[in-house]
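Q: Sequence in, structure out?
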Amino acid sequence: MIFRKTRPTPTPVEPEPTLPGLLTDRIGKLALRSAQVLVIVALAAAIVFALVQLKLIVIPVLIAIIIASAAAPVLTWMRARGLPPMATAWIALLGGIVVIGGLVTLIVFAVRDQWDELVTSATEGVDQLQEFLTSGPLPIDQEQIEDARIAVTDFLTSAQFGSGALAGVTVAGELITGAILAVVILFFFMKDGDRIWAFFLKPLSPTRRARGERIGDTSVRVLGGYVRGTAIIALVDALGIGIGLAILQVPLALPLAVIVFVGAFIPIVGATAAGILAALVALVTNGWVIALIVVGIVVLVNQLEGNFLQPVVMAQSLSLHPLVILVALTAGTILGGITGAVLAVPIAAVAWSIIKVWSADDRNNRRHTEKQLLAR
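A: Exactly. Output:
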């Protein structure tokens, strides 16, 4: 028997991983996607940071866009009657200033006429509260109350309060500057808003220009519908609570009704906070019985508005889940304070509407093509 020497089977050598292979396997794809997400988040954070730093310009522009969108039907109606854009812009702007100025004048006169009564009632209410704290079910020592008063007085006369007051003066100057800037920008938006948007869309291709026109029309419709719908709801809240306060003879019924109207522009929390303020004024000036009645009126008006009026008025302009609204309010408040809270919800509504109509025509064209192929 002859034995032949067999050669050992060579061990297969695994090829060295290449860069394309590392990037296209499962872990590589996950890493690329994670890197893309991180880049997008960083870019979004940079944009938000830049907008916050430029809020003196950004906030007036946003306010002007929202108000111009709300006034779009009036401007269109006047232009359809043959008025030139310059005249329609001046009429709408001056009309709004006259209405707001008249309302502020009424508030000032109402506060001035009832100020002495309010101070007297507030003093009596504070004395009653102090008596309740010292002799109520949970008595507080008189010395503790005096210590609290001294602490408040020391703070009001401290350097920290003075620096805060100086900061408040700076903020007031910024508010005045922003208000003037918003009025000027609003005038140009009402006069040439469509031409300004068309100018930005002019360099784009026909497909992208059509998308831009679709986004512009949707933004104006959603913003205008939101502001007009919120104004209707706010007016109903203000009338209901204001009439109740007037019947109960609560001082400053008109200013409190105006606060309710303004507060209603902050969804979920605005009208409730304004109602709590009205109840506190009633508690200080009219006693706890009237305050409880005011609380009942506020709850009743809010329930009627939330269950019957809001679904009808806001159905077409604001289709956001309450959780989305709450998150938008929180983010807006952190970034822009009260102004951010007012602007956050309409901006979120517009963003969602833009997402929905971004490729609307593309989908419609695809469906039309599929129908034509099936018909053949």
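Residues 327 and 345 are 9 Å apart (CA to CA).
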